[in-house]
Amino acid sequence: MKLLRSERFPAFLLLGAAVLGLLVANLPFGGAVIEASHAHLAIPGTGLDLSIAHWVSDFLLAIFFFGAAIELVYEITSGQLNSVKRALTPAIAAAGGVIVPIAIYLLIAGHDPATAGGWPVPTATDIAFALGVLAMFGKGLPSKVRVFLLALAIIDDIVGIIFIAVLFAHDLDLGSLAIALVLVIAFAVVSRYLNPRNRAVLVPIMIVLGLGAWAFTYLGGIHATIAGVLLGVAIRQNTGMHARHVLEPWINGLILPVFAFFAALVMIPQVSVSELSPALWGILVALPVGKIIGISAAGWLAVRLNRTKGEEPAIHFADIVAAGALGGIGFTVSLLMANLAFADDPAIKDQAILGVLGGSLIALALSAVLVSWRAAHHRRLQREGTEPAEPEVHHAPDEIHGQLE
After folding, report:
1. Where are its TM segments located (predicted)?
2. How far is the C-alpha of 266 from the C-alpha of 268, rounded, in Å?
């Protein structure tokens, strides 16, 4: 379990699952595996009728978003984003890291109505992957670099959640959504009465309420992962942090690798380079290039705006550039948005997914070089005594997961 709570191993697992999915899809039996992933599994009498792939992306990924939302709430209320001054620099940097990739994507693929709708895809940052690369290559980096990246990725997640909720809703059923909201409120109320004495009774009730909220969100026409977000926001904070700690090994060791495997189940198109979709090129360029330019430029501006005269900068520009490269590792949320944006065009969707995988791998390689360079620089400063060594910083929710009344 400790291995699955680390930052390095889950990143390897996620990448391995994606590579395996891409490999399986392009073996002789790959077509049969892809067809099997589209087989439907329905729950009679509920209206829930999803393919295996959609059970993974709509249901399992809702659990991932539940954990992410708990961390979002913690950081906004008690963590690194709990004041305007502390949130300003990563917020402005994140805005640049969203706007510039969109602009690059639209410049490359926006002229074609079939591909223009993919502009949200290169806006995401994969927290698990980025922190995994930072852990592997960033020994010696100041904790403020990790904090900046974490805040940046969290704000990116907020933007991604908004995009998913607003852009990919369809055939809204207000009655079902109202029931989902009532169930979320009931979930929140029950979580506030949870304690070690009544846990055996109330935890099953919370699970039933959570499943009901997910089902009615799906039936209401909003992407069902939003239910995970709402439940993560609604749960009492201490209870939520404990739940996140319990779920973390399952999210890192099962949910995200399974999602990555199914998302990467695409056949590499047997076409010439000139016949590849603009969506592939737009994402392939916008993720690594757009993120590093957008985050670096906006982050530099934010540091200048947020800096008191004569004060040491909150984070140096070169470290912002390294964080910008890490921001180009879109992966999980980008794969989800590629599936949603091109759901009606499987051929373009497959190429968009290849763009996400390729762009994320380019960003991964670039960030490994830049993070290693900056880490070596900071280690040298520490040896020379011009920069104090800092202890490793962990996610605050993990440190206090046991604080359950």
Report:
1. 52-74, 86-107, 147-168, 174-193, 222-238, 250-268, 280-303, 315-340, 352-373
2. 6
- The average pLDDT across 104-109 equals 97
Q: Is the dihedral of CA 291, 294, 300, 304 positive or negative?
A: negative
DSSP characters over 41-88: EEETTTTEEEEHHHIIIIIIHHHHHHHHHHHHHHHHHTSTTSSHHHHH
Instruction: Count CA atoms closer than 13 A to 281's CA, side-chain side.
Output: 12
Where in the chain are the domains?
14-49+83-166+265-380
CA 40 vs. chain centroid, Å, equals 26
- Structure tokens given for 93: 């940097």
Structure tokens at 235: 């749960």
Beta-carbon contacts of 311 under 8 Å, excluding residues fewer than 6 positions away, are: none
Q: How far apart are CA 262 and CA 242, in angstroms?
A: 29
CB atoms within 10 A of CB 83: 8
Q: Tens of pLDDT along 131-140?
A: 788 888 888 8
Tokens 């992966």 sit on residue: 331
Class for domain 14-49+83-166+265-380, per CATH? mainly alpha
Residue 388: pLDDT band (50, 70, 90) is low
Please give the model's pTM, rounded to 2 decimal places: 0.80
Sign, CA torsion 106/107/109/110: positive
H-type helices in 168-313, by residue range? 174-191, 199-219, 225-234, 237-250, 256-263, 278-285, 291-305
pLDDT class of 178 with cuts at 50, 70, 90: very high
What pLDDT score was predicted for residue 228? 92
Phi, psi of 146 (to 5 degrees): -65, -40
In the 8-state DSSP scheme, what is residue 120?
T
Indicate the SS3 state at residue 40.
Answer: strand
Q: Which of 56, 74, 81 is nearest to 147 (CA)?
A: 81
Closest residue by Cα to residue 280 from 357, 190, 340, 346: 357
* DSSP per-residue string spanning 343-393: TT-HHHHHHHHHHHHHHHHHHHHHHHHHHHHHHHHHHHHHHHTSS------
CA distances (Å), origin 87, targets 73, 90, 145, 242: 13, 6, 14, 25
For residues 267-272, give the mean pLDDT.
Answer: 78
Q: Is the dihedral of CA 367, 118, 296, 256 positive or negative?
A: negative
CA distance 325 to 375: 14
